[in-house]
Each structure stands twice: as structure tokens, then as C-alpha cells.
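#dry-run=false #mode=assembly
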Amino acid sequence: MNKLLVSPSPHIHSKDSTRSLMMDVVIALLPAVICSFIFYGWREMVVMAVSVASCVLLEWAITKYMLKKPSTIGDLSAVITGMLLALNVPYTTPWWVIVIGSVVAVGVAKLTFGGIGQNIWNPALVGRVFLLVSFPTYMTTWGAPQGVVDAVSGPTPLGAIQEGLMQGATVQELTSAYSYQDLLFANLGGSAGEVCALALLAGFVYLCIRRVVKPWITLTIFATVAVTSLIFWGINPARFTDPVFNLLTGGLILGACFMATDYVTSPMSVKGGIVFGVGIGFLTMMIRYFGSYPEGVSFAILIMNSVVPLLNMWFKQKKFGRK
Amino acid sequence: MSKNTFSIGGVHPHDNKISRECAITPLPIAPTVYIGMSQHIGAPSVPCVAVGDKVKVGQVIAEPGGFVGAFIHSSVSGTVKSIAPRADLAGRPSTHIEITVEGDEWADGIDTTDTLVTTIPEDPKAIIEKVKLGGVVGLGGATFPTHVKLSPPPGSKCERVIINGCECEPYLTSDFRTLLEKGEQVVVGAALLKKAMGDVPCTIAIEENKPEAIAHVREVIAKLGYSGIDVMVMKMMYPQGGEKQLIDAVMHRQVGSGALPISVGAVVQNVATALAVYDAVQKNKPIVDNSVTVTGECFPKQANLLVRVGTPLRYIVDYLGGVPEDAAKIISGGPMMGRAVANLDAATVKGTGALLFLTEKQTRRQRETNCIRCGKCADACPMGLEPFLLNKLSKAGDVEALEANAAQDCIECGCCLYSCPAHIPLLDNIRIGKGSVSGAIRARAAAAKAAAEAAKAAQTDKK
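#status=ok
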């Protein structure tokens, strides 16, 4: 007879592994990726390829040659970071800017802290924000979509409105250029991840069905953005944009569905997640309305990432049979 | 679909009840049995026979070693060959009585017929006494002496008896088969337990993956005409059969940390225990055998066997064709809470409910990777604990923080380790931490006692 294995219970394990969860996120991002290829063509494909390849290669090289640990690229988290980074930059971004972004995302924001699970801030967002403040020219020049679909060219809607407001126009005049259909189905100036709300939402629904993400974080972000903008817009529609416009523009859907729900950098409990979501939604609107950047989701998520350890400490689920 | 379940956590392992069609059949009696003295929680029993004594089936061979203890009866007729330490299934030595089997002669006064006795004795005390004499212990896994559980401390009052027919562990089907084949006896057992606790209502909780059992038990209750016994259909959820979880699911009351079920008015007994109570009270038949599910995808023959207590595991396995080539682990009990068998020569005990064969692929632990803080362990924990945190605290040896975060509340159901995508051995580490917390609690109690005694001594000195 063969040797018997002896170990403590439990003796079986669920099918989930870090890799399988990350694979689900990759699958969920595919509709948006395909959309971005359709809208922006081969240049977006190059951006995506450079971003994913440099993130994965960097993680492999750093774990192997600097940390001298087993490689962690098999868990696919670097692939996701690469995909998210690519979806967050204009398709016109030069390849070397993207490589710098992945060095910051994977090298600095992730591996410096000890790799997956140890980072405080979402790596892709740190990379994106680093590029935004370092290379503002590249990062805010949104070229016109040039794929198979005819599309409107120009700055992002949020950028255009901020510009217009400074020149004394009213919000009504400025938003009249955009129909909600345009916003929902695509295709205005913006980073790849901003352009097709429906594709992103489809991916998010997939993640919810697979129980990979915590939907309450995303939903509270949407609700907070809607309520906050409803109040401001109600007070002065000439100065402040309306709720639907705010929900559909900028990186809000990408951020709320895929970045704020990152396991590592979001609170674990439902209550903590709701506070987290409200914080992101409110900060996003404050930056959009009063900040000097037209778009605030990235900053809002990074700021709220910083308080996650506190939220985890303050908001715990009720223990069985205890007050 | 039923919505009745406990309020916090839980997981859904595939139920794999591949032995559900296997009727309970008696296993031929082994030539030699080894009856352990530590078959229950509490003090080991004390042998009351000597080497060379002739014994009959059902004869007392060991007496309770303390208040929390149980009688042990011979499961066979024959001659006591030795009373000596022998390795149990984990390989730890404990005292066993070895009996060489000769024939199958039962002790006097035991009703071995199949006639159903439905008259319930009037005196609760008489029921409890018979339960004690029958050596009945909880057969759901914990093997807590049943008569102790039926004698709540003064000041506490039982409001409901719950018969646990959840069988939430994957693979196991012996309770299901018992409900199907001995539903009458189980229901009479439930009526006896209900009577023993002062005629309180009784709920038989069965998970909805056993519709035949649910229908059968409902029919039996109607036929026998007992009032105050009902069947509650439960949602499939592990660990529903956990005592605290089941009370929460049935009565919507949560037993406090460190408290007993009776503190919220509940007494929980397993289906097999209810059957044992019936046998002990109505038939004077002590626990001499129990149903054991033998199963596993790699095991060619699924079976539910009625096995005499003390039968060597190897005898059962050989009877069914031996250990399959690709079996890597044999588990006594279910895959979530059962114990890995290190020693096939170990003998069954009253609480042995299953032998499960798993292949290396099914059971091999994966390499541990970084915690990704997904919180799945905390979502799964039915006690509302934070396994990821307890894991860290346990590794750091921070006993104070472990206690503050309720490590001692852990019921070791395994949901955290089961669901961790990073394959972190959460429960292994939490068990270690739990051990240090219990040590600290005991040390504190001992220190407080010593201090009180010292103060008392100082007082007397002054006088």
C-alpha cells in the first residue's frame, strides 16, 4: 500500500486560487479592451501590448534578480496592472512613457511594498498618476479615435467643460455637444478605458456573477457621485454638470468597477467598503467641480486607498454571539 | 428553495453524496475487536473486566471515569484477551480492551427484535438514566456524553430540542440513510429526548438536498401521531450542522462566546444519537454498533455499513476490496472536519461516521502565496472572525491580541482555509493560536485561584 498523507482538516479546497480570480478580472476587462481596439485601432493595440509586456517582464525580472524569490507572474496580477494602465492613458502616448509608467506601477507601487497583497495603493493608478503629473502634455492630449467607427474628435468632455467654464461659458452650452448615447456607447475623446461605458459595465456584471468583486463599493461610488452632483447641479445648473453626465464621463466607470474594487487596496467589510465608496464618490466630485484637474477619480481612489487600513480596523463584521 | 440557515458566513462545497443510494448493511463481525477507553469527550472510561473474562454483546466493560464520562459496552461476545495501550487513528496510544470474538451472544435484557416501541416513559429522569446506562454519546462528531447534555445546570431551561439531520459535510450519507431506513426509530428517539427535556417542542432539521428523508420523516411523524415534533427544511450550507450555527438557523438565537447551547434554551442532538437514544431507552440496547459511510471517488465500492464498535479500520477496508492504488489520504469523518488516518490498524469508535478516500489531486495542499486581502476567509467564517488577522497574530505569537480578536471562538470548521485563494494554512495557524489563548486563560484562572488562596492563608495567619 502507498504512504498515507496526514494533515489537519480541512482536506479539500475550493477551486478558487489567486490566479483564477485574476483570470476572471482579465476576462472581465476584455470587452473594454476589444472596444478600445475597435475605436483606436492598431495604436491602441501597441499601447496595450507594451503596457502588459513591460509590467509582466518587470515583475519577473525584479522578483528574480532583485528579490531573488520565486516568480509571481503566474498569478496574472501584473497582466491586470498592465491592462488597466493601458486603458488609462491616451492611445497616442509614446511607448517609452508607458514603460516608465509600468516601472512606477509594478516596480515602485507594488514590489517595493512586498508584491501582491502588500501594496497600499492600486499599482496601475499610481503609474497613471505619476505619468499625469510628469508628462502632462502626453497624458492630456487626447487624439481623435481613428478606428473603424466614425467618431468625434477633441478633448475629453470633462476637460472641455473645465476649459469652457474658464472662458465664461455655461455648462448647458457646453454639454449640449454630447448626447447621453454618445457617452454610453462610446466614443468621445478620452483614454481607452473612458470611452465605452457599456463594455466596462458588462465586465463588471461578469465579475459580480462570478462573485469576484464587492459590488457594494462600486454601487456606493455611483450613488455618491449621483447624489453629490444632483445637489450641486440643482443649486446651479449653469456652473455644475448634471448627475448622468458625471456618471458616464471620465474614468468613473473604469475606476469604480475595476480599480476601487481591487482586493488589496479596498476594505474587507461591507461597512468599510461603503465608507470607502462614499469617500471616493465625494472626493471625485469635489475634484471635478473645484479642483484644477478636470478628472478626479484616480486621485480620489488613491486618497481613499490610504485610509483602508483604518477602515479595516474601524469597521469589522459582527462576531457570532458577541455584542 | 429553503432560506433557513445561519446568519454569518458559510461555504458551499460540492456535496458529493455519491453513496446516497447505498443502504445500510451489517459488516460481518471482525475476528478481534479493540475497544478504546477514550471514545468520548471527558475522562477516559475505566475497564471493569479482566483479561480472560467472557463477555457478551452489550455487557458493560468499562465505567465512566468522571462526571463527564460514559459507559462502554462490549460490541461482541468472546474473551477479553488484553487490556493495554494501542495506537488510535492518529497513532497516539490509549488504553484498549482487546476481545477475541466467539459467536454472537447478546447480554440478557436486550431487545434485539425489530418491533417498534412507541410508548414514551413518563419519567424524564428514567429516560436520562437509561441513556447514561446505554453509553450514549453525541454521534455528530463531538462525542459529548449525551446524559450530561440532557442534565442542564440548575437555573437553565431547555426550550427546544433540535435533532441535527443536516449532514452538511460533503460525502457523508449515514445520517441520510438512517433517516430513510430507521426514520421511525429516530422520531421515537426525538420524542424521548423531547420528553427528557420537559416536553418542549422538537425540530428535526434536514438540509434540502435530502428530499426523500424530509418526506419520509414527515410521514412518520404523522403516522406515529406525536405532537410538537416538526421537520424544518434547511438551505444547503456548510457548517450548518455546527451546534451554534444550527441553533442560530432554527431558533435565531446566538450562543455567546464560551457559553453552552442551553444558555439560549437549546439542546441539539444528532440523528444517529436520537437512534442510539431510542435503542438505549426502548430496547435496552447500548451503543455497540454505528453506521459508517465508506466512500470516495477513487474507492470502487461505495457503502454504508453497520459496524461493531472497535472494528479495525483495515478490516472494513479489506472487506470492500482494500485501499485503492490512487488513494493518498484516508479520512475518518468528512472532508471538512474529519481527521486524517495515520494508522489503518486503529479501531472504530462510537463516533466514527465515515471513512473517506481522497486522491492526491483532491487533497494535496497547494503552495502558499501572498495574502491578497480579498477577505474571502472573513466572509466564510461562520463565527464572524477575521482568519487573516488571527493567522498573522498567531504567527507573531501575540496571545493578548488573539484573545481580543476572539481566536478562542473558532470552531475549526475549516471554511477559511477552504476558501483562501492564496492557499494560506489559516486554520493550522489559528489552531496554534487558539491553543496559546486557552493556555493563557487557564494560567489566569490558576493565578487568580492561587492569589485567592494566598489571601485566605494570610487572613488566617493574622487571626
